[in-house]
Write a structure and sequence with these properties.
Chains A, B: Belongs to the SLC41A transporter family. 2 copies of one chain form a homodimer. In chain A, 65% of the residues lie in helices and 6% in strands. Chain A contains 22 helices and 6 strands. Residues 1-11 of chain A have low confidence and may be disordered.
Chain lengths: 458, 458
């Protein structure tokens, strides 16, 4: 084991606090040699994380000293928010060399959000064939399969044998760094099947490729959205899939590592949107960027809060006469908001994973309503007792209980119906659902509780 | 194109509403032949989705008629909540045949949560070697690399050549369905490097395997958690990685498709936990299961709501004298709750992706505090004006503004500090963070607003 420490102590190759301290020390001493020694063996993704985590000052100092080795990989791993800044500080030579090492799909991802002059500088660094491939990908709509795909697909005529293919691969000089299938093409360049490299390696040279193709074969239209691509890879456990134009001709290939990144980003976006944070945020954002990402949603929430207050203000008489109402009313609203958020989140996730469909939507709606009702009854009893005893008033307990049932039923229903409605209207169901739902539960909660109370008590 | 419709119309091979209707019709007619025709070409994952989406009655009728083809695949794609039920209704012969087709890692995933008698029935169906492999995996802790891994790794002595390896693969009869690397082992069976099949295929027969190993090589300790495995695959773009015991000897291999599933599940768990839904829920849950998954969290929220009400009740005098306070107080609390949820969600995500570390935590905390303060000042002005004009009282406007600043600052801080604290205490930061944060913002919001008001107005 001691002979291969690098194998069994990932800590040595990853970015642990010890490593960060050593790197920062080298940066502080302005010691380029020591710095680059300390970067030895670090994965570009970890160097990117380092750049995202350190202060602006340390980042600038680092970039002055850094050899720029793997600069391309590091940039494509880096937060989009930081790329322009880092590119601007990189030595142009290191930058050009770095981007030439990248696969074309990584170059596309790297340049698509850059300002034109930086984009140009990077495209100029590429060989003509790669530049052409990148520009073709950039011609496809943002967040489409065309942007995700690697142009350099490994293909073979459908009538080739294993032997022919292996010989061909041995002679090829320009194979992609990673590939998992040989895609069989008919004479019109349309993919007709995938052969895994494993099958290729374990079959006799005389075997026809078309006889060992994979059962699951799903070519991806070049205009398909990244979300749909990620879904297909996750649902059908694809490792790579050919990308085809509207005529069904192959234009590239997408591999699972890219699909995994998209899936992760989609999940992150839903998580943040549900919390009212615009999906574009990152930890390296400045205070100003952070405020900008959150203030709009708080503004929307302010409006909904004011609506709730307007409802409350309709019952000033009741509130002045029975102060208990002011004390208890937030409970009804808060319980409704939480119950609504629960069913909302389940619905948004189910829509994202396509588990909520025409065939079960009515049953799920019914379930949410019943679950809301059941929770409502339970908490009506509990809170009715507490409230009744607290203010030694049976009426208050009853009013509280009934309002609780109404609001939790409404919460369950709005939690499922609002995201479904947004989806139908082609909005992202995660977007603003939360605000709608809590507005409903606040308004209904206050109205039901205070309305009932003034009706019964005054 | 028409020659290969299956290639370019995934709709034909996926589960669209048209397909579902046809299947349900066949089920309604109790027509087994027609049913199994309609299932033709459907991916097991889609059949599983179908079973999850239809009503219990349709599912039972379907299972009576179903040929049980691909039963193993379908089961391993199925919601854990439904597996026992479906297994119970399957024809034992189809079940045994189905599980024999599965890779051992899928069998492990399938049986780990089953009741003993069903687990036994499935293990009995396996060949001895597979059964042994499955039982060894089951001996590792739940949610560990040992449970995720496929036992059947493709390996070679470190001194082999490409030619030797290819000949060996051609002669092998028991290769895994999917494999992407040949893992080189030293004489002590410790992995020392990975060779991608692409490199193997494109190198001359005389090439030594050890000369074409991949740069990034990260063996995974068998006890590592699924979350750490998913992180490693996502961070370092691994396709497959050898799993090693404490002595560094190979015990299996994990492939990216399994890591992708874990990553997706971890994301889903965080999303649901943040909303106060226990991670185990699924759309096929009954009303009772749904209530059970959500009631506990609502109960916790009820406690926090009562605490908030206790705070309010301290200011009954003020509330009875100035009804405006009852009308406006929910606004302060609601804005705080939303701002807190925003920074909380960003923090939870950053902890999950390991972007929030010792090297940037102080800066991020500072940022959240400043962003909260900035938003606080903005909404203090806006809401101070609105409140002041609404009740034509400068004092109320001022009190509202100051309370807003205090609460949004506290919201930003608690949103970042609470998840960090939970993580330090080895709790899942997504767990209960939301409740803690909103409790803080409710209490602080009501206390600051009503406290200030009674101090100034009475």
């Amino acid at each position: 084991m001691s002979e291969h420490p690098e194998n069994f102590e990932p800590a040595d190759t990853v970015l642990d606090p010890r490593r960060i301290t050593k790197i920062l020390a080298a940066v502080a001493d302005r010691d380029a040699g020591l710095l680059n020694d300390n970067l030895e063996g670090l994965h570009p993704a970890d160097i990117a994380d380092f750049l995202e985590q350190v202060s602006d000052g340390d980042r600038d100092a680092f970039l002055e000293l850094w050899s720029g080795e793997d600069a391309g990989e590091v940039l494509s791993e880096l937060d989009e928010g930081l790329r322009e800044e880092v590119i601007g500080q990189l030595d142009p030579a290191a930058l050009s060399e770095g981007v030439r090492d990248l696969e074309t799909d990584d170059v596309v991802d790297l340049v698509e959000d850059l300002e034109d002059h930086q984009k140009e500088a990077i495209l100029d660094a590429l060989e003509d064939s790669d530049r052409f491939a990148v520009e073709q990908s950039l011609a496809f709509p943002e967040d489409s399969a065309g942007r995700l795909m690697q142009r350099n697909a490994v293909t073979a005529p459908e009538d080739w044998t294993v032997g022919q293919m292996i010989d061909h691969l041995r002679d090829s000089t320009d194979l992609p760094e990673q590939f998992y299938h040989v895609t069989l093409l008919d004479p019109r360049m349309c993919p007709v099947g995938n052969v895994t490299l494993g099958r290729l390696l374990s079959s006799s040279r005389a075997t026809l490729l078309k006889d060992i193709t994979e059962e699951v074969f799903i070519p991806i239209p070049v205009t398909e959205t990244g979300e749909d691509v990620a879904y297909a890879f996750n649902q059908y456990h694809l490792i790579s899939a050919p990308v085809v134009d509207e005529a069904g001709r192959i234009v590239g290939v997408i591999t699972i590592d890219d699909a995994m990144i998209v899936l992760d980003e989609e999940n992150e976006e839903d998580l943040l949107l549900l919390a009212g944070v615009s999906g574009e945020t990152s930890l390296s954002d400045t205070v100003a960027e952070t405020v900008r990402a959150r203030l709009p949603w708080l503004a929307v929430n302010l409006l909904t809060a004011i609506i709730a207050s307007l409802v409350i203000s309709q019952f000033e008489d009741a509130l002045t006469q029975v102060v208990a109402l002011a004390v208890l009313m937030p409970i009804v609203a808060s319980m409704g908001g939480n119950a609504g958020t629960q069913s909302l989140t389940v619905a948004v996730r189910a829509l994202a994973t396509r588990d909520l469909t025409g065939s079960n939507v009515t049953r799920v709606i019914r379930r949410e309503a019943l679950a809301g009702l059941a929770n409502g009854v339970f908490f009506a009893v509990v809170m009715g007792l507490i409230g009744g005893l607290w203010f030694s008033s049976l009426t208050i307990g009853l009013v509280l209980g009934v309002a609780m049932i109404i609001n939790l039923l409404v919460a369950g229903l709005s939690g499922i119906l609002i995201p479904i409605a947004l989806e139908k209207l082609d909005f992202d169901p995660a977007l603003a659902s939360g605000t709608f739902v809590t507005t409903v539960t606040d308004v209904v909660g206050f109205f039901a509780f205070l309305g009932l109370a003034s009706y019964v008590l005054l």
